[in-house]
């Protein structure tokens, strides 16, 4: 700059004392955020129901009760006993004779029978599938997202 020139931001004073006034300028920057939709993604879940055969084993128990007449005189009572898979419960009664005598009237045989059977049942199974779709811009068409697979 030439010493004879006055810069444009300098305001010359009209005072006789040759004062020069300078204006100080400061710039301020305001930063903001603006949201612009460039596309969208949506995810949908679809549940499919399908009947499927399922193999399973069913177990059952049956109790078979058989009364076996004995009608035999005994001296004392016996406790219930087990013979194999059969529980034997003695049943006693007093019968009048010339003298009172304990008599084993009958035995009740109780046997438990276990069976198993393999069967196939139809069962309703659910499976879920996620569908991811993407669109370009706010008004674009929804298309399957190839990157989500």
Automatic annotation (TrEMBL):
Matching Pfam families: DUF2382
UniProt region (Disordered), positions on chain: 1-20
InterPro entries: DUF2382
Limits of the DUF2382 domain: 24-130
Protein name: DUF2382 domain-containing protein
Organism in which the protein naturally occurs: Caballeronia grimmiae
């Amino acid at each position: 700059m030439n010493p004879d020139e006055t810069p444009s931001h300098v305001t010359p004073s009209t005072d006789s004392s040759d004062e020069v006034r300078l204006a100080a300028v400061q710039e301020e920057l305001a930063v903001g955020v603006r949201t612009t939709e460039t596309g969208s993604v949506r995810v949908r879940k679809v549940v499919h129901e399908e009947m499927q055969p399922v193999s399973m084993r069913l177990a059952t128990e049956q109790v078979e009760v058989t009364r076996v007449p004995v009608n035999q005189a005994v001296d004392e009572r016996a406790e219930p006993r087990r013979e194999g898979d059969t529980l034997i419960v003695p049943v006693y009664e007093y019968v009048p004779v010339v003298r009172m005598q304990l008599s084993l009237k009958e035995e009740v045989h109780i046997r438990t029978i276990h069976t198993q059977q393999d069967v196939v049942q139809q069962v309703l199974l659910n499976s879920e599938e996620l569908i991811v779709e993407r669109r370009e811009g706010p008004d674009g068409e929804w298309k399957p997202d190839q990157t989500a697979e």
